[in-house]
Amino acid sequence: MGFATNEKLRAMITGKNLIGYSLSGKSNKIFTGQGRSVKEVNVVFHEADAEEIHQAVTKANAAFNIYRHFSSERKIAFLENIALKLAASKDSIIKITAQETLLSLNRLEGEMQRTINQIKLFANLLKEGSWVVSLAYLVQVIFPLHFR
After folding, report:
1. According to the model, what pLDDT value does residue 29 have?
2. Would you call 24 helix, strand, or coil by DSSP?
3. 123 and 99, same structural domain?
4. Rounded to two decimals, what is the model's pTM?
5. 40: domain range?
6. Predicted pLDDT of residue 36
7. Fewer CB under 10 Å: which end of the chain, C or N?
8. Which of 19, 34, 69 is the last residue of a domain?
């Protein structure tokens, strides 16, 4: 797994925050990357300010309000698609992350696989359905006992 050239890094790393489908770098609070390659391309990262954080939370809430109405089958397909896309892109994601953070490739490969496995676990839990019974038990038995 070779590292991206400085020219490719310039095109991929903007130093801005991705909020929804837009890049934003409003904050005057900046920092530089830790990796040698990131420093070579002189990338300055913008810390998200309160307004950007609010925008991100608002967009995430709006997305959840759509997602929560998905059928179980659609949620399963959504999660499985995320896992597939992460797996397909993992080499390039790990390469960039190693350059940005100086973390070892072994560490990053483990973290990526853990993330993929957790997403698959949630999809399988939706398929299997026992969480519905657990939630019903929690609401019918545990909550009434707790709030007496």
Report:
1. 92
2. strand
3. yes
4. 0.71
5. 1-69
6. 60
7. C
8. 69
64 and 4 within one domain:
yes
CA distance 62 to 65: 5
What gap in Å lies between CA 95 and CA 4, rounded to an integer?
A: 8
Number of domains in the chain: 2
- On the 0-12 / 13-18 / 19+ scale of CB atoms within 10 A, 35 is buried
Which pLDDT does position 120 carry in this prediction?
97
Helix locations, the chain, DSSP H: 6-12, 36-40, 50-67, 72-101, 105-128, 130-137, 143-146
Mode of pairing for the β-strands spanning 22-24 and 17-19: antiparallel
Provide block-wise average pLDDT over 10 residues at a time, the chain (148 residues).
Answer: 46 80 90 64 83 96 95 96 95 86 92 97 91 70 62
